[in-house]
């Protein structure tokens, strides 16, 4: 039948047709990498400069919940970004299918190194249809990075804190979900010149990354996922750094191919729709049994903690807080 | 009878006669330029088993396992989502880039999610009085294509026209986004009171453009060119007893299942019409079935056919000589028979309606007395099929 899950079906169909005509799934990257590095640039639709991203309610989606997935595309991640890019398009269908959220809206983005990369930050738009797939295909896998065990995650965090407007927060005081997928540390400071150059805000003082994450946590459930097959999967420093910033929301994932399933299960848990066992049963139910094993390990810590309810502030309160 | 030339394969029952296995056997046996589909759409389900591989052919021709390309003529309704799914299944079965084996007449009508959702909404509303539709939007696609001159409130083919109809989208439109968008917008508006699929016209336009880039779209002369290049096997979908003109209304398909479309495509070129028949009758879903007998159903288990949510139960009954003659007449005669399921243990035949079923001690002789038997077979497996050699008298060929 197939039509019950139109999103998955359309995604798969589009992929099939593109493969038949010999088109690379990630044509944007292929085209750009064929050019000299000084011509590399972010696709207009993903350019964060002077941009605002919105997750709005609509007639079709009256109870929108924003979900943002930003993944590290630098060299230390090795094959992982490509695996992510190929798998993440299914996320929306996965969430809808098990009814974890009524109206998920998904944004994808990519993180590089603002010290050394041509394209250090790419941020798409919140979508609820198959334009998500197009967004993923337009992400440029630069593969750069500086080799100093840090990437510009804090720059991405700043964008999400300051340049995203969501009806979930404004109307209902509900947090969105932000997943950062990477394998390194934040830069020691969020540099003002990077904010000016990449995002366009008139900032003249460097900012402590910890304060960016504090502000971000007001409106977002923030998770950091460290996938296997990246360079620092077994480096304890990475875990200490991110646990310090996000507490138990630091997750290690054995199988990078299970990222979609991990995100869906995490949201199911956080929404208190399922417990870990039920989330894994749901995954098996939709044919993700193999991924389920990796997800189960990643969630072992998250599932045992007492149920966390989102701190719901006064919905009429201010949108912005001052960075300190 | 010449099986080296063009062959038209038509089912003489209510479908599921074994057309797929017969087409596969014909293609595997001799060089074949193409399999041309001359009716139906994504609702076809032709089972073929060859060299340990099984596939239920729907929009791809049943000659695919034999490496024969498929051409979908303008009589076929094309559904790109299902086509992509089928391409992936074929790839999993070991066919490399199956979409490269496909060409489609640009005039073929497009079955869209709008048609499918409307089809299901109507069939659901019929409740117990279901027509036995497959729920794949076939009838709806044909119906909408008939509405060009209709106005809201008119009744066309028994269904009221609720809104302002537009032009029906075709396969050629998929390569023309502006035209396609206009037609899909009209479809969306037209069907809004009945059913709305969960997606946007934008998405469909993008997906159909990818579809158009992945398959070869041809003009109306393609079948003629193929037929002049070499042997073409014409694969019919459904059975003659479901034909839109000769079947039992309303339990019919909106399609000409007789060989007439194929004859039109052949435009006078010589050909052989092969009527496919089981040693017993079967039918899917609602509709008359004079020789139906639960004992037959219990006796002959079916490997690849089950109950469909929209289509309904799988049914079986004795061979019905009256219906068989009727089906042959509806074809304006067939040149030879392909008899399948010869492994059925002691099948019976009802010679006249009302008379008891009598055992067929030698089914092949019984069929052979009516018409030459050119192909014999058992289940869907190619290994169990025999195609008559042209030099031999076909009646003597045994499985």
Give the tags.
heterodimer, A: 324 residues, alpha/beta, six-stranded mixed sheet, two-stranded parallel sheet, disordered N terminus, B: 399 residues, ten-stranded mixed sheet, three-stranded mixed sheet, 11 helices, 21 strands, globular, disordered C terminus, VWA domain-containing protein (chain A), P-loop_NTPase (chain B), adenylosuccinate synthase activity (chain B), magnesium (chain B)
Summarize the structure.
The complex is a heterodimer of chains A (324) and B (399). Chain A is an alpha/beta fold.
Provide the β-strand percentage band of chain A: 15-25%
| C-alpha-based Rg of chain A, rounded | 19 Å
Helical proportion of chain A, percent range: 25-40%
pLDDT below 50 for ≥5 consecutive residues: which ranges of chain B?
391-399
Order of helices and strands of chain A: HHEEHHEEHEHEHEEHHEHEHHHH
For the biggest sheet of chain A, the summary is: 6 strands, mixed
The biggest beta sheet of chain B reads: 10 strands, mixed
Task: Name the structural class of chain B.
Answer: alpha/beta
Q: What sort of overall outline of chain B do the alpha carbons produce when their principal axes are compared? A: globular
**Mean pLDDT across every amino acid position of chain B:** 89
Task: Write up this protein.
The complex is a heterodimer of chains A (324) and B (399). Chain A is α/β, with parallel strands linked by helices and 324 residues long. Helices cover 40% and strands 15% of the residues of chain A. Chain A has a six-stranded mixed beta sheet, sandwiched between helices. In chain A, β9, α10 (236-246) and β10 form a beta-alpha-beta unit. Chain B has 399 residues and is an alpha/beta fold. Chain B has eleven helices and 21 strands. Chain B has helices at 19-29, 80-92, 113-126, 138-145, 177-191, 201-214, 222-229, 260-266, 294-299, 321-330, 363-368, and strands spanning 6-11, 34-37, 46-50, 53-57, 70-72, 77-78, 102-105, 109-110, 155-156, 159-160, 216-218, 232-239, 271-278, 281-284, 314-317, 319-320, 336-340, 348-350, 358-359, 373-376, 386-387. In chain B, the strands form six sheets. In chain B, strands 11-7-5-2-12-1-13-17-20-21 form a ten-stranded mixed beta sheet, with helices on both faces. A three-stranded mixed beta sheet of chain B has the order 16-18-19. The A-B interface holds A 1-3, 6-7, 9-10, 12-14, 16-18, 20-21, 129-131, 134 and B 80-82, 84-85, 87-88, 97, 99-100, 113, 116-117, 135, 197-200, 202-203, 206-207, 210-211, 213-215, 309. Chain A: This is VWA domain-containing protein. Chain B: This is Adenylosuccinate synthetase.
């Amino acid at each position: 039948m197939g039509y019950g899950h139109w999103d998955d079906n359309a995604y798969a169909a589009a992929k099939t047709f593109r493969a038949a005509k010999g088109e690379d799934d990630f044509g944007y990257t292929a085209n750009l990498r064929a050019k000299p590095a000084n011509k590399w640039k972010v696709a207009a639709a993903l350019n964060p400069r002077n941009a605002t991203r919105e997750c709005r309610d609509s007639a079709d989606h009256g109870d929108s919940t924003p979900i943002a997935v930003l993944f590290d595309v630098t060299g230390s991640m090795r094959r992982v970004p490509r695996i992510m890019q190929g798998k993440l398009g299914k996320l929306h269908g996965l969430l809808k299918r098990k009814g974890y959220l009524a109206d998920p809206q998904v944004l994808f983005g990519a993180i590089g190194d603002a010290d050394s990369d041509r394209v250090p930050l790419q941020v798409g738009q919140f979508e609820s249809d198959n334009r998500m797939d197009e967004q993923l295909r337009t992400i440029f896998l630069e593969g750069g990075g500086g080799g100093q065990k840090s990437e510009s995650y804090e720059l991405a965090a700043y964008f999400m804190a300051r340049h995203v407007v969501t009806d979930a927060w404004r109307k209902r005081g509900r947090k969105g979900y932000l997943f950062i997928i990477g394998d390194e540390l934040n830069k020691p400071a969020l540099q003002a010149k990077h904010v000016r150059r990449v995002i366009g805000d008139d900032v003249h003082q460097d900012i402590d990354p910890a304060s960016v994450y504090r502000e971000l946590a007001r409106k977002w459930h923030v998770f950091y996922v460290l996938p296997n097959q990246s360079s620092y999967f077994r480096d304890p420093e990475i875990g200490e750094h991110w646990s310090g910033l996000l507490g138990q929301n630091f997750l290690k994932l054995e199988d990078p191919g299970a990222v979609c399933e991990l995100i869906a299960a995490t949201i199911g848990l956080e929404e208190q729709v399922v417990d870990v066992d039920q989330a894994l049963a749901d995954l098996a139910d939709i044919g993700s049994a193999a991924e389920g094993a990796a997800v189960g390990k990643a969630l072992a810590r998250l599932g045992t903690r007492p149920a966390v309810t989102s701190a719901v502030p006064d919905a009429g309160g201010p949108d912005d807080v001052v960075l300190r | 009878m010449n099986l080296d030339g063009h062959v038209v394969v038509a089912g003489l029952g209510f479908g599921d006669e074994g057309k797929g296995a017969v087409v596969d056997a014909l293609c595997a046996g001799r060089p074949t330029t193409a399999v041309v589909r001359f009716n139906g759409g994504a609702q076809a389900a032709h089972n073929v088993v060859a060299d340990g591989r099984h596939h239920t052919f729907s929009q791809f021709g049943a000659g695919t396992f034999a490496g024969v390309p498929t051409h979908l003529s303008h009589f076929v309704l094309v559904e790109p989502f299902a086509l992509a799914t089928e391409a992936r299944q074929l790839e999993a079965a070991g066919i490399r880039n199956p979409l490269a084996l496909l060409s489609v007449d640009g005039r073929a009508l497009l079955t869209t999610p709008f048609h499918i959702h409307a089809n299901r909404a109507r069939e659901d509303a019929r409740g117990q009085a279901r027509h036995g539709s497959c729920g794949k939007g076939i009838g709806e696609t044909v119906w909408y294509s008939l509405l060009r001159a209709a106005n809201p409130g008119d009744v066309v083919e028994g269904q009221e026209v609720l809104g302002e109809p537009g032009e029906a989208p075709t396969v050629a439109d998929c390569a023309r986004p502006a035209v396609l968008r206009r037609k899909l917008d009209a479809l969306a508006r037209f069907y809004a009171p009945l059913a709305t699929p969960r997606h946007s016209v934008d998405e469909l336009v993008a997906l159909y453009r990818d579809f158009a880039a992945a398959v070869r779209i041809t003009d109306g002369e393609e079948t003629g060119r193929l037929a002049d290049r070499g042997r073409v096997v014409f694969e019919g979908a459904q059975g003659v007893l479901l034909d839109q003109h000769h079947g039992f209304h309303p339990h019919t398909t909106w399609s000409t299942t007789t060989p007439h479309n194929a004859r039109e495509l052949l435009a006078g070129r010589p050909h052989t019409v092969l009527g496919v028949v089981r040693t017993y009758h079967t039918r899917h879903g609602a509709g008359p079935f004079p020789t139906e007998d639960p004992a037959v159903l219990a006796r002959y288990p079916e490997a690849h056919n089950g109950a469909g949510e929209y289509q309904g139960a799988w049914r079986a009954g004795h061979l019905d000589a009256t219906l068989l003659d009727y089906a042959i007449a509806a074809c304006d005669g067939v040149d030879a028979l392909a008899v399948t399921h010869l492994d059925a243990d002691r099948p019976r035949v009802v010679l006249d309606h009302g008379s008891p079923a009598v055992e067929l001690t030698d089914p092949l002789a019984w069929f052979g007395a009516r018409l030459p038997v050119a192909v014999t077979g058992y289940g869907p497996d190619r290994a169990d099929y025999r195609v008559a050699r042209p030099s031999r008298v076909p009646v003597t060929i045994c499985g």
